Amino acid sequence: MTPADLSRTVLHAVRRAVDEGVLTGPVPDSVQVGRPGPGGSGDYATSVALRLAGPARRSPHDVAQILRTEILRAGPGLSRVDVTGPGFLNFTLAPGSRAGLVRAVTDSGIRYGYGDALAGTTVVLAPADEPRAAVWAETVVRLLRAQGADARADARSGEDATERLTVRPVPAHLADDLFARLGSDASRWGLLRPAAHDRPATGDGLLVQHESNSLFTVRYAHARTRALLRNAADLGIPSGDGDPRDPGARPLLDTIGDHPGVLAAAARHRAPDRVARHLERTAEAFLHFQETCRPLPAGDEKPSAAHRSRLALAEAAGTVLAGGLTLLGVDAPEHL
Prior knowledge:
The chain is mostly helical. Helices cover 51% and strands 7% of the residues. The strands form two sheets. It has a three-stranded antiparallel β-sheet. Strands 4-5 form a two-stranded parallel sheet.
């Protein structure tokens, strides 16, 4: 079960409760599912009961208990649903359900995380001449389209822009030769990775092949996933179900599960820096995973189901990294 699957499960539970007269009030268009907050438990959580409590004229805790019953009736892939705090629903996935997350990435490829959250929305960004604003606008358009919006950065004849993005510009004395000096990939990362109000990165450190350079870390992690798959193919080891039970796999599974939500939030808030930071977290989680869980057998060790599942997870991580870099307009090399 993926976070998107869980979001739909909760939304269906709300709709059933309203249709059956157990709850009153409008059914929301969508339900946000994320990591549990302080005091929470399990794998994911939602605060939807707090949103529904007012229209339903019931306490958030009562609404959460009603939804808990509905979700457990039709929530395959869940082993527990708990109510915590004033009315947060907390979900613990059933053993083996993480395989569905990896399959979702495999099925979608680099389009994993694309959706229709902004379908029916039209966004026309004002043209930008300043280098950072131009790159930011181009990337925001790509993110909006990935979420179903009709978006563009060039107003058509007789059409007015609906939005103007505001970003901290590149200092004038660095703007002219930025792309010639750093190249397209490093320049784009330096302009997109800092938040809009922060100073863009324009130094030669973006070209350094060291973990201190976040762009290098992300692209290195992607290249490592591809190297693992090539080595596995040479050894005749296929990918498995993608549900490794190693404790060290949990952070990587979590970051992969967060990817669709990050893309949707980046589009809504016109914030490609959120995607860049998420790629950093995914890269760090993968590099730790490959050291602690070892997707390939060592020495005389025989390939096992665990190795195959770890390889599937490594492949999914590489796909998320490639997809995120593509949305930012940055190359994801197979070799580095």
